[in-house]
């Protein structure tokens, strides 16, 4: 009880000094809890949606090994209408409806504006059935009754200001559907962002499936008293086993699994950044308790002198840490819910609708946040608590401070050197690896070991690095600059720990900047070297429909247009081994549009009759040479024996490993209705007509806003923008760790000012002005921040350069150091140091000289 009372007294006596550490715990816990609440809420939203959209039992085509799912052709797999009649006659079935649904559509308004989601949610077209009343209700107008009528969901109507009577054009593989809005249906649950349009059944069959009398699914409603499981069994017995039969729960679970995989990626990525923030916060907490212990040396000595044991002193500090962790965690849990709501609002602004009505705070979320915050805080305070317990009563009463252990410093330095050396060796092995998988493991080991090594060896590095920085920046400020340097060097362990907190975040920033810049530079170089086409046409989400293909082929000013299709197929090499990665079918002009280097044969010959090419890695692995025969079993088609006419060099980032054959060869072995749509198309302008052809091509594809027309300059800029957006998102997540690191600098300086109260009073007494005092503290802060930045940027560039060597195995051969970014981050670190010193410097300047001198 005495220990608890002492801890409480100390905690509240230093509550101002504990505040920043508590904020670090709060931010880290808030990010963890916010991530869990946000992802759990999204899962709840999808769970409700899947639960209400699933019929009691559904019957859909079962995918055979030799069939695709229809996504390649743009026409989903379907079953005959006779199945609906057959299922309707089964005992226990109350009703069976034929449903049609397709994701391979684009919906545009009269101004040719895409009505689809901008967040990647699907656009769905189908027929309106009674089963849809489970999830939607018609709130305006009526359901579609003919080929010129369409109904749209209310969320899409509100988002794009659609009203009854407005015309929509639905672009599908079989053609365009022009229809006027006659109804608007509202969701009964939250719609995460999908755009939905409904047609009458006959129009849906003709336009989405390309055939009447067929459906993509049968929705079955159970009769009263019949369970879904019983109904499924009855339906399965009546059908011949060629169909996929699921209960509502099985259907929802399958959909949930698909969404869950994506949500897990988001959750674990965000938790990873929260972990980085926790790691940075550990340094802040260690510094806080180390300095508090040092400032209470005399008090600890008195406690030891009157009978307190080492264990009691140790326990007293740990109880303070427990209180800090508990308070910070509780506040962090509440802040986490706020962060989750903020993320939901942000996603809603971006087009993904999430309602706070579905806000999900599981019992495990606050428990995880509380345990994580408290455990991390107590563990971080363990070393300072252990040092406090070692304080000798007599030494403490003489104000000798905490015991200095030179041997411990030497051991620490040795361990740091060993870890850093091991990390450097692992990075070297990663850079010289022959396989990306082996190199990735060594890269991970190298990053972890070198990071820990730099953290451990930080106090040893502080002396030399701080002196170099000071010689460049501080010597011009005379005595004030020299005092700032000595203050930064006074406690290398503290300076090392404070700098290490900033180092971690900036190391990751530098590493990702190098990797991103190298990816863009490599891809740009590869485009300049390999791509001969003037124009590239593609969509991020959909294949190119035949009508857009025809419009492109009819564009004036083009010398040729090249089609490019990826085809599901199983290859059997001469050694008898199989490979399911498919082939690429293209027009012969693709040999001009992509200048692939061949190690054997000619790429043009690969587009001949019953011929193909293979990549050099495949050829080496299976011992394939020009003239050999590869057996290709086309999914949805026949099996062909194709002669290898070329082996292409896989030392590239474009089409690495691709196996080419001509579209004519594809047509010979795959029925016309099974041939996939183009993934991408290329075009070459007639000589001297590049500008005119570019304008004409964009005009020809204006009716199809889902496709982008790019010349090589556009493509490079978009690639740069995409990488930049990804990096900006990562930098935003890393900002949390950097904010915690800044708090660490503020806390270190604030406690340092308190620690040096008497010294500051003496400096002021002998003539140091308030302005000079503030400048000294700001300079000390800048030096510490630049020390952390220098270590972090150097470490990060080393990681990034190693990662680029691994990417070179995938064809990204250019190492590009983004020096403007690196320089900007380094200069920004100086401003971070200035900002962190504002409050401590202001408080130091306000000290009363006589009171400061009288402080013991």
TrEMBL record:
Topology term for the membrane: Multi-pass membrane protein
ABC3 transporter permease C-terminal domain sequence ranges: 273-393, 733-848
Protein name: FtsX-like permease family protein
KW Kinase (keyword) present: no
Source organism, top-level taxon: Bacteria
InterPro entries: ABC3_permease_C, MacB_PCD, Macrolide_Exporter_MacB
Positions of the UniProt region annotated as Disordered: 57-82
Pfam families named in the record: FtsX (PF02687), MacB_PCD (PF12704)
Locations listed in the record: Cell membrane
């Amino acid at each position: 009880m005495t220990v608890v009372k002492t801890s409480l007294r100390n905690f509240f006596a230093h509550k101002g000094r504990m505040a920043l550490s508590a904020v670090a715990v709060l931010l880290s816990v808030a990010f963890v809890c916010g991530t869990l609440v946000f992802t759990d809420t999204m899962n709840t939203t999808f769970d409700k949606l899947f639960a209400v959209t699933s019929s009691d039992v559904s019957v859909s085509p079962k995918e055979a090994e030799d069939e695709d799912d229809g996504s390649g052709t743009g026409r989903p797999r379907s079953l005959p209408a006779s199945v609906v009649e057959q299922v309707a006659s089964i005992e226990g079935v109350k009703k069976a409806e034929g449903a049609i649904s397709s994701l391979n559509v684009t919906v545009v308004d009269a101004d040719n504006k895409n009505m689809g989601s901008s967040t990647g949610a699907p656009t769905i077209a189908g027929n309106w059935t009674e089963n849809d009343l489970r999830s939607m209700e018609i709130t305006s107008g009526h359901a579609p009754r003919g080929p010129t009528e369409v109904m749209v969901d209310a969320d899409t109507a509100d988002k794009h200001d659609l009203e009854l009577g407005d015309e929509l054009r639905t672009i599908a593989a079989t053609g365009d559907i022009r229809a006027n809005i006659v109804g608007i249906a509202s969701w009964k649950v939250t719609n995460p962002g999908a755009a939905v349009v409904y047609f009458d059944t006959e129009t849906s069959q003709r336009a989405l499936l390309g055939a009447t009398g067929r459906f993509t699914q049968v929705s079955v409603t159970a009769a009263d008293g019949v369970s879904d499981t019983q109904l499924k069994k009855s339906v399965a017995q009546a059908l011949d086993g060629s169909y996929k039969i699921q209960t509502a729960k099985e259907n929802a679970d399958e959909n949930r699994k698909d969404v869950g995989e994506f949500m897990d990626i988001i959750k674990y990525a965000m938790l990873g950044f929260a972990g980085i923030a926790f790691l940075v916060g550990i340094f802040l907490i260690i510094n806080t308790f180390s300095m508090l212990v040092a400032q209470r040396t005399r008090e600890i000595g008195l406690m030891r002198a009157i009978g307190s044991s080492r264990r009691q002193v140790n326990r007293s500090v740990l109880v303070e840490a427990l209180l800090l962790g508990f308070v910070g965690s509780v506040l962090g849990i509440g802040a986490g819910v706020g962060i989750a709501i903020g993320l939901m609002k942000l996603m809603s602004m971006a087009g993904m609708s999430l309602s706070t009505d579905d806000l999900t705070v599981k019992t495990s979320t606050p428990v995880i946040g509380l345990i994580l915050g408290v455990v991390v805080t107590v563990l971080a305070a363990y070393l300072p608590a252990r040092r406090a317990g070692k304080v000798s009563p007599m030494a403490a009463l003489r104000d000798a401070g905490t015991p200095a252990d030179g041997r411990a410093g030497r051991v620490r330095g040795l361990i740091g050197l060993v870890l850093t050396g091991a990390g450097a060796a692992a990075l070297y092995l990663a850079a010289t690896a022959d396989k990306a998988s082996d190199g990735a493991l060594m890269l991970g080991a190298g990053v972890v070991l070198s990071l820990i090594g730099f953290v451990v060896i930080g106090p040893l590095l502080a002396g030399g690095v701080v002196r170099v920085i000071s010689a460049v920046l501080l010597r011009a400020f005379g005595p004030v600059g020299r005092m700032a340097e000595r203050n930064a060097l006074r406690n290398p362990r503290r300076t090392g720990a404070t700098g290490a907190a900033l180092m971690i975040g900036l190391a990751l920033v530098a590493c990702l900047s190098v990797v991103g810049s190298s990816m863009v530079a490599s891809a740009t170089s590869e485009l300049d070297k390999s791509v001969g086409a003037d124009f590239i046409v593609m969509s991020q989400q959909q294949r190119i429909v035949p009508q857009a293909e025809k419009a492109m082929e009819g564009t004036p000013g083009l010398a040729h247009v090249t089609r490019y299709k990826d085809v599901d197929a199983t290859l059997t090499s001469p050694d008898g081994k199989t490979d399911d990665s498919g082939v690429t079918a293209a027009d012969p002009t693709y040999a001009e549009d992509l200048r692939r280097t061949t190690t054997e044969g000619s790429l043009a010959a690969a587009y001949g009759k019953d011929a193909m090419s293979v990549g050099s890695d495949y050829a080496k692995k299976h011992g394939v040479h020009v003239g050999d025969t590869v057996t290709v079993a086309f999914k949805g088609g026949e099996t062909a024996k194709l002669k290898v006419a070329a082996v292409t060099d896989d030392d590239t980032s474009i089409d690495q490993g691709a196996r080419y054959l001509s579209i004519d060869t594809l047509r010979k072995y795959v029925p016309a209705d099974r041939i996939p749509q183009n993934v991408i198309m290329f075009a070459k302008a007639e000589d001297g007509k590049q500008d005119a052809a570019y304008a004409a091509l964009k005009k020809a594809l204006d009716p199809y806003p889902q496709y982008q027309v790019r010349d090589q300059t556009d493509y490079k800029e978009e690639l740069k923008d995409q990488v930049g957006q990804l990096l900006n998102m990562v930098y935003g997540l890393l900002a949390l760790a950097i904010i915690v690191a800044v708090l660490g600098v503020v806390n270190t300086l604030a406690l340092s000012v308190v620690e040096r109260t008497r010294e500051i009073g003496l400096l002021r007494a002998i003539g140091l002005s308030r302005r000079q005092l503030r400048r000294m503290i700001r300079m000390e802060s800048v030096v510490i921040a630049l020390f952390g930045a220098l270590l972090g940027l150097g470490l990060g560039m080393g990681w990034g350069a190693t990662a680029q060597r691994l990417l070179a195995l995938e064809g990204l051969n250019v190492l590009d150091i983004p020096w403007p970014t690196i320089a900007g981050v380094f200069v920004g670190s100086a401003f971070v140091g200035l900002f962190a010193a504002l409050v401590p410097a202001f408080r130091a300047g306000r000290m009363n000289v006589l009171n400061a001198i009288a402080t013991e």
